[in-house]
Amino acid sequence: MSAGASFLAQVEQSFDRAAALTRHHPTLLGQIRQCNTVVQFSFPLRRDDGTLDTIHAWRAEHSQHKLPTKGGIRYDVNVDAEETMALAALMTYKCAVVDVPFGGAKGGIRISRHKYSEGELERITRRYTFELVRKNYIGPGIDVPAPDFGTGPREMAWIADTYAQIRSDDINALGCVTGKPVALGGIRGRAEATGRGLFYGVREACGITEDMKALGLTTGLAGKRFVVQGLGNVGFNAARFLVEGGAILVGISEREGGIHNPKGLDLDKVVAFRKENNTIIGFPGSTALPTSADALELDCDILVPAALERQILAENAPRIKAKIIAEGANGPTSPDADTILQKKNVLVLPDLYLNAGGVTVSYFEWLKNLSHVRFGRMEKRFDEGFARRLLSGMEKLSERQLDPSEAEAITHGADEIDLVNSGLEETMIGAYHGVRETRKGLGANVDLRTAAMVTAIDKVAVIYREMGIFP
Ligand code: NAD
Predict the structure, then answer these.
(1) Which residue out of 91, 111, 254 has the highest number of ligand 1 atoms within 8 Å of its CB and is therefore the one to mutate?
(2) How close is the Cα of 198 to the center of ligand 1, in Å?
(3) Per-residue pLDDT tens for 146-196?
């Protein structure tokens, strides 16, 4: 079985586990579980040296119960149809958990990004976009890609530009993709949204005394030791916000291996060291671990897998020492490992909830693109004026004046970034309590992943039932 097929089986197993706890008709559950469409295509690439390569690519739309569908584009050597379908399914459930009104989709190109020049990557990305346009698999009301493993704002800019060139009559063209640079219709806060969302989720979970007591941990994030796997977009930003929140980074794993320092690692210094030396191994004051997988088994309170799927399996799960697993990556834990971790009383904060910050802020970016106005532009000055008048009235009544910095903090009107972070925080906190309540209703032996999946299935099932069948 290919890695992609095992991953798809893993997602379907999680679905089945949850579906068995719902009362929906089996046919309806079967409809929800199925990936609606998947397209595979190949196209030629002229390399810089004049030779030709054949590029293999996919796009899967798991469910169109809400449109557009939404999901990242991955550049990786392991991309295949099954992996793309598994990730598309996760997107459907994720969007439902955090009430983002999209169906799930995912795309991928089977390449090792590092083997191609920037010019070659641009040609691959633009041709991929062209193929999506031709097949009606992209558009602000159809299917809206975003960054994922191996892609970022640069690729999203190429996609937006290619789409806009072809569909020059589409006034909403910039809404065809999210995760764009701000200058090209992107939104402030998108780049770090998944990591920030993860932080909000972990902070919320650690703030519930009853749940922390059950794990033998104190309440709150401060002082909790964590390990992160992957220093990419999700892993780096998650680590940054967790450190800012008072947690201590004691271990890091990257492609080349892992490093450990029980007293704490300086994240920025590790990143700078890696940039200079092309490796984290040898970072001053740290102990090197032979393989990246070893870092998963380090002594810590919170483990943040934020690289790839299927990292915590039945084989290594018994050796995991963390009390909380905060899934930044999609599908890092297999169902068998889930069972083992639950027996070990480990709290798994599941991907379909915890890494939904990216798609949440992508939703905000899409709304911004459709409304053609930056968030905060209309009300910021008005709100500031109102707050100033209110404050000045209170100062008159109390015959006391605040110093200018205090007054500024109170009267500051919200900028785009303030609104984005506030919307993200509200989403992550609200969704956590929704999933936790569902879990309570299902009984003590149900894990959070199953509870999140039940939450998602219930929301999608209502829509499927109410929209009926066409024709
Ligand atoms: P990225 O390409 O920015 O970073 C991935 C990092 O993992 C890289 O630094 C890479 O070197 C490292 N890595 C690769 N193999 C590794 C290994 N065996 N051990 C340790 N590190 C390894 O990708 P990303 O966007 O951060 O995505 C990471 C995961 O998060 C993926 O599963 C992705 O699907 C998921 N995700 C991403 C987003 C997003 O907004 N980018 C949103 C939701 C979920």
Answers:
(1) 254
(2) 14
(3) 999 999 999 999 999 999 999 999 999 999 999 999 999 999 999 999 999
Q: Give the binding-site residues of ligand 1, using a 6 Å CB cut-off.
A: 147-150, 194, 229-235, 253-255, 292, 306-308, 328-330, 355, 358
pTM of the model: 0.95
Q: Counting beta carbons within 10 angstroms of the beta carbon of residue 339, is it exposed (0 to 12), middle (13 to 18) or buried (19 or more)?
A: middle
Residues 204 and 428: beta-carbon distance below 8 Å: yes
Name residues whose C-beta falls within 8 Å of residue 224's C-beta, 6 or more positions apart in sequence: 206, 217, 246, 247, 248, 301, 302
CB-neighbour burial class of residue 469 (10 A; exposed 0-12, middle 13-18, buried 19+) = exposed
C-alpha torsion angle, residues 464, 465, 467, 469 (rounded to 10): 90
Return the structure tokens found at 401.
Answer: 């004046």
Which of 66, 70, 94, 106 is labelled catalytic? 106
For residues 181 and 467, give the distance between their C-alpha atoms in angstroms, rounded to a whole number: 36
Residue identifier of the C-alpha nearest atom 31 of ligand 1: 329
At 185-225, the pLDDT tens digits run 999 999 999 999 999 999 999 999 999 999 999 999 999 99
Is the confidence at residue 445, as pLDDT, over 90?
no
In angstroms, the CA 355 to CA 350 distance is 8
Cα separation values, 7 from 13, 79, 305, 450, 454, Å:
10, 11, 16, 17, 20
